[in-house]
Amino acid sequence: MPVTPPARCRRAVCRPFLSAILLLIGLHALPVQAQAPAPEAAEAADEADAAEPADARARRIAARAPVRPRFELQIDAPEAQRELLERHLEIQRFREQRSLDAAELERLLLELPANARRLLATQGLFSPRITLGALQPPSAEAVAAAGDGPAPLGRIPLQIEPGPVTTVASVQVSFKGAVTEDADAAEQREDIERDAQVLVGQTFTQDGWDRAKSAALRRLTALRYPGGRISTSLADVDGATTSARLYIELDSGPRQRLGAIQIEGAQRYDPKISERIVSLTGLTPGSDYELARLQRAQQRLIDSGYFDAAFVYVEPADGTAPLPVKVQVREAMRKKLVLGVGGSTDNGARLSIEHTHNQLPFLGWRALSTLKLERQDSLARTDWRAPPDKEGWGWITLLQAARQEDELVSTVSQRARFGRAQDGEEYDRSVYLQYDRARTVTPSQREAGSNGQIESSITANYAWTRERFDDPINPNSGQGLAVELGAGTTLGITRKPFGRVQARWLGVLPLGDAPRSSTPGAPSPGPRLGRLALRLEGGAVIANRDTPVPDTQLFLTGGDNTVRGYGLRDIGVRQPDGSVLAGRYKTVVSLEWQRPVGGDGLTRSALEHVLFVDGGAVANRTQDLRMQWGVGTGLRYNSPVGPLQVDLAYGLETRKVRLHLSVGFVF
């Protein structure tokens, strides 16, 4: 039988005892916390980390096993959609993340279907069927490839059924601002609306819609309205009919006109030179803003030779005040010497020396002197030109000595020229007096011990050129015409008058439809079927039969840029001894089909295949003109500096195959 202690004992002794037990139980139930290191220990650890050399730290990091893909994404979809998703899915950013764990991967998998749906919508696929399978164990190959690095987390199966494609049902373009009221902007509005309608019937893609909006805005801001903007754009997609209705509103802002020309960077040369060059492109105070004119002015500044770089621009404003035309130039050195080596199929190896003096003492003219040595031709020439005046006219002078060594004929000539020339916005013109002196030696004369007869003349000449190509370097369309007229008299013992006329025309005709360039003045992507290039040349010297006209005023043809399949100046008046002399009449015709090879339809194909037929004739009488034909094929590469063309031609008259190389667009 247990003994019960007195009540007094329980209160005096047991209560403290029970309190102690409860206190111990409470302390034991408290969470255990890690003991923080002492401040001195933490500082010592930090100092140890900082003391580690950078190269040692880099070696320690590099020693870690490389991270292999942490998961495999297996997409079952058509190729176009598979490539899109593999490249742009958000989950792919974590593919090689060392710290990726299973929990984070699960979170990414929850977001993957919505991310895929948004990406497919950019291609006009608004009702795809997306099936995301359960995460599969990693393949043995993936585990082996991981090595000592982080282990792969598994394989992700994703199946895509794209569903119907959404097509563009309509495109509506509206305008606000000054463009709606300007009568002379009607054509500009029509061009923008017509370009936008190209989307109708095509598959709707976000990229295509963005390009169309950008193109419309560029065409608006390229003329009169540089401050234009897109005020509203909307793509209304109807999933039931798989069609999209597009809408864009363009706000032109005020019509902008140009103000004064401001030159920056002119130090060596008179600022009036650059100001006149810019003005000659039509950028005059009060004229409408036009991006194409700014680009032409920029190119003409560089072509002038005074500047290594030029930038012509305006800063759009909200008001209607004239916009200053700002011209920033980096001037070329006053003197420059260029040594060059090269070659051609016509003349073989070439060595050239060019010296430029942009500001001759006292005169202030620009002088370009050239010495060129080739297998058949040698040339020494100096060409001086005064800065243009307000109308673009400038004085010109030329001194030239040349030697031509054809297969059997040798010609030594001198030429002097003095006159005025104008490089206009649409036309180039020149008026000048020219003195020619030439000595030609044929095999029969050489056998007879004769050095030939010197013939000379003086003529008054007028030259006129007009070029209208969509691109001055790689044209897709356009035409050019050049005409030269001259009249004068021979010199020496026998003085007789004569006249001379020469003309050439080149037309480039696109074949098939081509997307219009989104920026006026920019190169077009080019017609899908290529283009035809038709070239016609003709020349005549009008004089009595016994008039001793210098050979340098007569005509020869044949070679890389005239009649392919024949050598340089191979087509002329054939002599009994087999030599070829220049004649008084010339005719040349060439038809070339330039067909793109490959390309994406958005940019001009860099490589093109060429088929051509060339023909030429030279004679002293029109009734003796007999065309000599050449046919062939070739390849051309459209480089930023012009086409590089390699042609293989067969001369029907000579029955020989010749290789022709040419660089640059030649009109």
Structural write-up:
With 667 residues, the chain is α+β, with helices and mostly antiparallel strands. The chain is 20% helix and 40% strand. The protein is built from eleven helices and 27 strands. It has helices at residues 7-29, 39-51, 54-62, 79-88, 102-121, 140-146, 186-196, 206-221, 271-279, 291-303, 443-447, and strands at residues 71-76, 129-132, 154-161, 167-176, 229-238, 243-251, 258-264, 307-313, 323-331, 335-344, 348-357, 366-374, 377-385, 393-405, 410-423, 427-441, 453-469, 478-490, 497-510, 531-542, 573-574, 580-581, 585-596, 607-619, 628-639, 642-651, 656-663. The chain has a 16-stranded antiparallel beta sheet. The longest helix has 23 residues, at 7-29. The protein is elongated, with a radius of gyration of 40 Å. Mean pLDDT is 85; it is low at 1-48 and 516-523.
Helices and strands, with pairings:
Elements: H1 7-29, H2 39-51, H3 54-62, E1 71-76, H4 79-88, H5 102-121, E2 129-132, H6 140-146, E3 154-161, E4 167-176, H7 186-196, H8 206-221, E5 229-238, E6 243-251, E7 258-264, H9 271-279, H10 291-303, E8 307-313, E9 323-331, E10 335-344, E11 348-357, E12 366-374, E13 377-385, E14 393-405, E15 410-423, E16 427-441, H11 443-447, E17 453-469, E18 478-490, E19 497-510, E20 531-542, E21 573-574, E22 580-581, E23 585-596, E24 607-619, E25 628-639, E26 642-651, E27 656-663
